[in-house]
Amino acid sequence: xxxxxxxxxxxxxxxxxxxxxxxxxxxxxxxxxxxxxxxxxxxxxxxxxxxxxxxxxxxxxxxxxxxxxxxxxxxxxxxxxxxxxxxxxxxxxxxxxxxxxxxxxxxxxxxxxxxxxxxxxxxxxxxxxxxxxxxxxxxxxxxxxxxxxxxxxxxxxxxxxxxxxxxxxxxxxxxxxxxxxxxxxxxxxxxxxxxxxxxxxxxxxxxxxxxxxxxxxxxxxxxxxxxxxxxxxxxxxxxxxxxxxxxxxxxxxxxxxxxxxxxxxxxxxxxxxxxxxxxxxxxxxxxxxxxxxxxxxxxxxxxxxxxxxxxxxxxxxxxxxxxxxxxxxxxxxxxxxxxxxxxxxxxxxxxxxxxxxxxxxx
Amino acid sequence: xxxxxxxxxxxxxxxxxxxxxxxxxxxxxxxxxxxxxxxxxxxxxxxxxxxxxxxxxxxxxxxxxxxxxxxxxxxxxxxxxxxxxxxxxxxxxxxxxxxxxxxxxxxxxxxxxxxxxxxxxxxxxxxxxxxxxxxxxxxxxxxxxxxxxxxxxxxxxxxxxxxxxxxxxxxxxxxxxxxxxxxxxxxxxxxxxxxxxxxxxxxxxxxxxxxxxxxxxxxxxxxxxxxxxxxxxxxxxxxxxxxxxxxxxxxxxxxxxxxxxxxxxxxxxxxxxxxxxxxxxxxxxxxxxxxxxxxxxxxxxxxxxxxxxxxxxx
Lengths: 362, 314
Hints:
By secondary structure, chain A is of the alpha+beta class. Chain A has 2 domains: about 5-230, Rossmann fold (3-Layer(aba) Sandwich); about 240-345, CATH 2.40.50.140. Chain A contains 8 helices and 20 strands. Chain A has helices at about 40-50, 90-100, 105-120, 135-150, 165-185, 195-200, 220-225, 230-235, and strands at about 5-10, 15-25, 30-35, 55-60, 65, 75-80, 155-160, 185-190, 205-210, 210-215, 240-250, 250-255, 260, 270-275, 280-285, 290-300, 305-310, 315-320, 330-335, 345. In chain A, a hairpin with a 2-residue loop joins strand 11 and strand 12. Chain A is elongated and about 80 Å long. By secondary structure, chain B is mostly helical. Chain B has one domain: MetI-like (MetI-like fold), CATH 1.10.3720.10. Chain B has a two-stranded antiparallel sheet with strand order 1-2. In chain B, a hairpin with a 5-residue loop joins strand 1 and strand 2 (about 70-75). The longest helix of chain B is centred in the first third of the chain and has 32 residues, at about 85-115. The relative contact order of chain B is 0.11. At the A-B interface, strand 6 and helix 2 of A face helix 9 and helix 10 of B.
């Protein structure tokens, strides 16, 4: 049975809307990521599903039950907090057993489930330790074990990895993903990190300004973003968004600096175009042909990112091979040889790219 | 750009060279070095704590005249006399009862109020202010206020029992009730401070712990006993130590409310020390009692640190 959010809103006393008319369906057993910049309401939404924050409007249904007025403990779910919320005075084992004890399970069942959960996160040897004697990653695993030990089939995670360093985070991505698949958990995961969202999710919900921007699979969201916000939120370095002007039926002048041949005809006189950094080319050019100047070059190993300033204003990033030699302050010419993947937006930021048979739900 | 670090290095080198000339060097290994820091507090402590303490110990081994001058050395005779005196043992006994009752009542009531006031309810700020108000009340004011309350003809309790057609309780004249009256007053006085400290401690428990517990299905009473209590145990430990020591040293309220009476029912150690010294002029006896009280308080403090601290640290 899916979890269904219908027209969910959250409004605080001062009339400030934190969430506006959010609807979505989260299928059983899927990895659902809610992503957005800080302050977009994503944590509030998760807390509303958990029952820790009241719902102002709309309904939340979990497994065919409207849970709007149910206390958290009756919603049959578990939650992993950003701060881990471990009890500092309890051992790892007792931390994991806390919920099972609170729900009055018999001792044998508690022992089995806790031992099992600790084994699953590779913490059996640490069961007698106190949380303060563990590293950040281990604490995170205790929090995971607590979620695993519970009977609940729905697990909510609120930025669980944001306190870990980059390498550990990647490792934990894989562990969480593997756990979710193994246990068939319905996982609702909140993050501000687009990489986390892309790598783990079955479906992503993008939130901004308290509204849903798009819900879709990672591929849909990356290739067919509903609007400029979604396009710029996913991808590193972010997509280059520029003003464009119609020159002829399928030729556009981008930022007054270079022309692009489009894969479709356009009606709008003025519009916006989004080209990912790896779809652009940079060539050294003399003063006459140059349309940009290099500001900085970042070396990433396999590739370099060239940050340039266009002659008519605006900053563009281009990915080039790491062997290419470019220096700051060089004059260059930026071109787009294959613009079939360029994204077009109207002046309000909505995607107007024609898609060939690929549907995306906005 | 590249030159900056080099020049700054040179500059800092120059600086350190020029500094060396003027700085009066204090060597941390120097024998007298630590005295600079310890000196002032040692002086003050010595003058106002250690000297009186040792002087009291000294006097307790002598007989004294009415001016407090030592006359005949008696060794431990003063102590033997005291311990064999039923009167003193009574004081010791009532003090222990008083300390026990005051500590238990102060902590449980303070905890109860603090837990209530930590809930997010409308108008809770008013209650927080009310509950912590006794912190601003002086002992004299509290004593007079409660004397009015206990007054057998016009007091609040008398009025209530009259209205309910009950026999009024003789709060301050009945030996059994006098102790209760003093305990009530002390607990009332203590409550403000205890409440405030415990409230602060309860509020500093991370919200997410309760939220996690709520999601995991823990009832609110379970949350109190399994989260709040262990999380604030260091503060509880601190507050109980303070309360016990304070109760042992209780003087003002007793002097103002019962004067140790009736029939020595509330004649606590400190009040006794005061009376023996300044009413009877028996400085040797009162010094001996003071030393015994010091030993008792030190003993309790030691026990608390030895046994409780291990349990409350996480």
